[in-house]
Amino acid sequence: MDLFADLSDRLLFAVPKKGRLHERCLQLLEGADVQFRRNHRHDIALVHNLPVALVFLPAADIAKFVGEGNVHLGITGRDIVEETEQSDKVEQALALGFGKCKLSVQAPARGPQAVHQVEDLVGKRVVTSFTQLSSKYFAELDQRPTEIKYVGGSVEAACALGLADCIVDLVESGETMRAAGLHAIANVLNTEAILIRNPRVRDNSVAQKLIARIEGVITAQRYVLCNYNCLRSRLPAASKITPGRTAPTISTLEDDNHVAVSSMVLKSEVANIMDRLKEIGATDILVFNINNCRV
Ligand SMILES: Nc1ncnc2c1ncn2[C@@H]1O[C@H](COP(=O)(O)OP(=O)(O)OP(=O)(O)O)[C@@H](O)[C@H]1O
Ligand SMILES: O=P(O)(O)OC[C@H]1O[C@H](OP(=O)(O)OP(=O)(O)O)[C@H](O)[C@@H]1O
Ligand SMILES: [Mg+2]
Q: Where is the ATP phosphoribosyltransferase catalytic domain (predicted)?
């Protein structure tokens, strides 16, 4: 196989090769029926059923590849787009709703090294994988230079090892930082995984198709389908509780006094919605997962 010739007519789509976003990206691709077989240790995989090639890269490099046009579409964290200064060069096609965390300033919580406010860190030593964002953050805080040093991983160890007075790193549950004796003293950025594209992509139709499919998978994960019966006279109240994305679907029943209602509702609100439907006398309330959709 001549891989370079095979790639020339394909849309290149970068996917994190490891780390927190990898598995979720593979699930998205499966949901979008992007079929491929990745050979062991090979970082490029041709898609069988679309003119697309997947390129497996470290999440930290993806924004730059997309921004410079080497690849056309990619999934990475918003933090990476900001850190690599690509926000003017890439378009955000979709926010994906996973990989949510905060980039935050963390310092020792107790002992002689303890720090409780970020102002006390001006002029001190910061260790991070996010040197650009950290430099900007501390420069805005004070004109005095703060020393910013790069490390590629296990950033949380830097204070205990005497390398830093504080770190700037990603925090989700806070477990890693607690275990390292650190606490958050300032938030630099909220981030989540995003689908980005190069605005100069040649074959827009393939990119559009992929974006629409991925949007469908994400929407299907966020919503469920709620079906129930209620008295026709309670329809105005029912429609307020389940307005649907456009409007609820109403079907007539043999019994003229009742209607069947079907409506997409947010998964995160479904328990509350079922309670409210019960209160207005709805019966036979059923909730179904949605496998896939286009909205
Ligand atoms: N704890 C977390 N919770 C949620 N999202 C995270 C978390 N850590 C990182 N991310 C997101 O995932 C992106 C990639 O980070 P991650 O650390 O998973 O990649 P990596 O450094 O390439 O992998 P690894 O750390 O396994 O070597 C980050 O830029 C951020 O957007
Ligand atoms: O708040 P938490 O839920 O504990 O998550 C935060 C941790 O997740 C990331 O680390 P990762 O797992 O990528 O390991 P790494 O430090 O080796 O990159 C990040 O760098 C933190 O260490
Ligand atoms: Mg990591």
A: 59-215
